[in-house]
């Protein structure tokens, strides 16, 4: 998009409606295997850093979303009067519709949904969300619950909501039926999958968040996030303490993330940590780790903060009252390009932000809805190198 930025210890995408940093937004093309594959979750042992370095790699595209709360992507219009944008945002729409959550969502090797599948845990909301996931062009879609999905936290649902077994059974039926289209619901733990592109994906998943307001999947006195050092991705509903966790409004933000999760991620150092939960904290941050001081894990003690890059909402949004016509036109075209991309693209496989495993982690808060429960935020589209799956001979 014409921006040249030097390499930084970490970069930040500010929370905002659909804002992405041009320094990590890339136009991209990608090819996909036509072979579909349904993976099975299983336990695996962590690999050493040396073994990881010697294993062949496969570039893999991951589509990441969270907090859709039963809403589907904006459908394609039946007719378009602007041939240059076809079914995308028109120049006029781009001024008022700040979203890439539009049909069809981007094609990927795997999709991650980080929870809050529903708003009120209604069966109809689960049905809509799983239908949406089944329709995405990806062989595998991985899903966890969030605090709004209380029918999936059965003890809580029966105790606090006097929930019915019929509701629980109906939701489980929806989840089971979605497996035929590659949708897999993950409970807390470590799971591994062989992807259709031949890569091995290792994921730690957890729906748990600190107690606030009496919701599902919450804990009062800390939580053990047992993330193995071999995990490629830590996929949790809530954020880590101090990273993409500011809740509230400007001037009254509070850190809502979990310190136990930050410590677990610091120990394991996965390639990616993705979450949602705090809608207004949408964004991304590429962190370079450093060794702590031996005390309690704090963001200031474990993250190298030199050279950060930030961008605010006003830096991307066109404003005819303060900007000249050329600037407005450029920003409008950029917004339309984001819509065509169907997400904020981050390439960790090559280029200036190529990830160094064990030294860096990309943090993403992929909440699609804003604080007003409007689906205005962009999904994330991440390219990353994964280990090639081992091929065993037939006996």
TrEMBL record:
Superkingdom field: Eukaryota
Membrane-spanning residues: none
Coiled coil residues, start to end: none
Alphabetized Pfam families for the sequence: Metallophos (PF00149)
MF terms in GO: hydrolase activity
Record-linked InterPro entries: Calcineurin-like_PHP, Metallo-depent_PP-like, UPF0046_metallophosphoest
Limits of the Calcineurin-like phosphoesterase domain: 61-280
Protein name listed in UniProt: Metallo-dependent phosphatase-like protein
């Amino acid at each position: 998009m014409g921006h040249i930025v030097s390499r930084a210890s970490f970069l930040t995408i500010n929370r905002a409606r659909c804002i992405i940093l041009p320094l990590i937004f890339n136009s991209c093309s990608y090819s996909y295997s036509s072979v579909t594959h349904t993976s099975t979750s299983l336990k695996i042992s962590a690999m050493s850093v040396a073994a990881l370095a010697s294993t062949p790699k496969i570039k893999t595209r991951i589509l990441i979303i969270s907090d859709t709360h039963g809403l589907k992507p904006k459908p394609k219009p039946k007719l378009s009067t602007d041939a240059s944008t076809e079914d995308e945002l028109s120049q006029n729409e781009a001024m008022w519709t700040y979203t890439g959550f539009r049909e069809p969502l981007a094609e990927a090797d795997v999709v991650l949904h980080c929870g809050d599948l529903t708003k009120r845990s209604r069966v109809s909301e689960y049905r809509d969300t799983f239908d949406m996931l089944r329709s995405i062009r990806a062989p595998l879609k991985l899903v966890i619950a969030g605090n709004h999905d209380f029918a999936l936290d059965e003890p809580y649902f029966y105790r606090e909501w006097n929930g019915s077994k019929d509701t629980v059974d109906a939701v489980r039926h929806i989840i089971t039926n979605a497996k035929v289209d590659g949708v897999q619901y993950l409970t807390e733990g470590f799971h591994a999958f062989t992807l259709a592109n031949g890569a091995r994906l290792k994921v730690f998943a957890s729906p748990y968040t600190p107690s606030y307001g009496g919701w599902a999947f919450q804990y009062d006195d800390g939580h053990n996030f047992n993330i193995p050092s071999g995990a490629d991705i830590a996929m949790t509903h809530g954020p880590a303490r101090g990273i993409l966790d500011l809740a509230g409004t400007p001037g009254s933000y509070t850190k809502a993330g979990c310190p136990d999760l930050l410590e677990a991620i610091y120990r394991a150092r996965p390639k990616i940590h993705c979450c949602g939960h705090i809608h207004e904290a949408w964004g991304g941050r590429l962190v370079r780790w450093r060794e702590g001081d031996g005390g309690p894990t704090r963001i200031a003690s474990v993250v190298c903060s030199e050279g950060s890059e930030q961008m605010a909402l006003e830096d991307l949004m066109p404003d005819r009252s303060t900007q000249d016509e050329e600037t407005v036109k450029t920003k409008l075209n950029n917004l339309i390009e984001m819509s065509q991309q169907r997400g904020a693209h981050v390439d960790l496989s090559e280029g200036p932000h190529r990830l160094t495993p064990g030294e860096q982690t990309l943090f993403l808060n992929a909440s699609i809805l804003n604080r007003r429960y409007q689906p205005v935020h962009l999904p994330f589209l991440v390219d990353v190198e994964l280990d090639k799956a081992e091929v065993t001979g037939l006996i």
